Give the backbone structure.
Amino acid sequence: MTGAAGRVAVVGVGYTDFVAASPHSVLELAREASSAAVLDAGLTATDVDGIASFMVMHDSVPTQAVATALAVGEVRFSLDVDMGGQAPCHLVAQAAAAISSGQAETVIVYRAMKGRSGPRVGGMEFAGGGGQYRYPIGYSAYMMYVAMWARRFLHETGQDEHDLGAVAMAQREYALRNARAFRRKPLSPDDYAASPMVVDPFRAADCTIEVDGACAVVLTSLERARDLRHPPAVVASGGYRAGPRSGLDIGDHLRWTDYSRNYTSWLADDLFRRAGVSVGDVQFAEIYDCFTSTVLMGMEGLGLCGRGESGAFVRSGATGLDGSLPTNTHGGLLAEGYLHGMNTVNEAVLQIQGRGGDRQVPRHEVCVVTSGAMMDGSGLVLTTDR
Amino acid sequence: MPSCPTCGSTDSRSEDCSGRGRVYSWIVVRVPVGTLTAADLPCTLATVELDEGARVVGRILGPWAGAFDVAVTARFVDHETWTELAFGQDEVAQ
């Protein structure tokens, strides 16, 4: 894409605290984070005319409620999807499309949930009908599905559990620099080895930590973004991709032939081509990490490292703050907390804008972000205004 | 499925299969998550590629080698209102 016409940027981010048991309603969490994002951008609620979010079954509140709570006067774009972690980048891309096509000027994208004290996504029975084949036999939690893939992925790529552990340890280093992170104790190799096995091959340290909270971003046209408070995080490309026979619901993977490759293997070419960048241009990455294995699979699928090389790549320090490809710089969902990948987008924006604080990556002009773990998902390429 | 996920056709028929297959991947659940309670643990769940080509997930009952491509055979477990398709590892080491 060239020129400012039609181009869109993320201009603000907002968060609530991430806590174990929030005294607030999900609506209040959503309102707080969305309002913070609008304020962060230097805008007011009257500037907003679009809002998008996602929920799994009934674990959140609709955009209509949040728009009403924010006293948004004129809503021209509203999008609620029943989707899991595939949604955040997808919704940002839809918001950008709405803005560039003139449907709306300024759009909020949020995720709000009481994921720890309220309904927990990992154990829900999803709409779609696939659950009737899984739940009666106990195959009934998202952690189990991703673990089933992880074992085959490690086997086919010649890697093992040490490679999973490397991800958890590398990301914890970032969490130590992130006051928002829910897990902030150092994680040594001994700590990892002592972490209890929950769904073999996953230890507790391989799994995201559920929290109550919300976060949000605000998008507007690049032209307008240039007059706002922070440097624009330009949406260079965004998109969703499902591989063939992606199943009846977000946990139904019996028709997916290869558990060693997820949607990122299908998404990568579209995402980079539409952004006009090559994978070698990517300076840092925020990869969806409900579990450690999805980081390895995502890096290999996007081509950020070679097939079977992701574990060694992480162990080499490449994904650390001083490495060639800092990755999951907030500590990821593994350590910052499970805001279902929306916080992964927020972090990418902060880094592109140069607002990463103690964990700011040195080169922050081009990044890739992903949302999703298995058959389908979405991604973004975000850049500075260049 | 109301139709074929590869071609979309709504023509279908049932076929008996041998109940034999090989393990494509597996997990061992060690804590109560999802619908599993402490009494169900540890629970080994395997993705089995049936010799006829379809893939199913079932519990592994009895000894479990913990290896890829291990041959398994269907074992049916009757519950009050339904019959479960589970698998057991074949006795002869593969």
About this structure: The first strand of chain A starts at residue 8 and ends at 15. The mean pLDDT of chain A is 96.
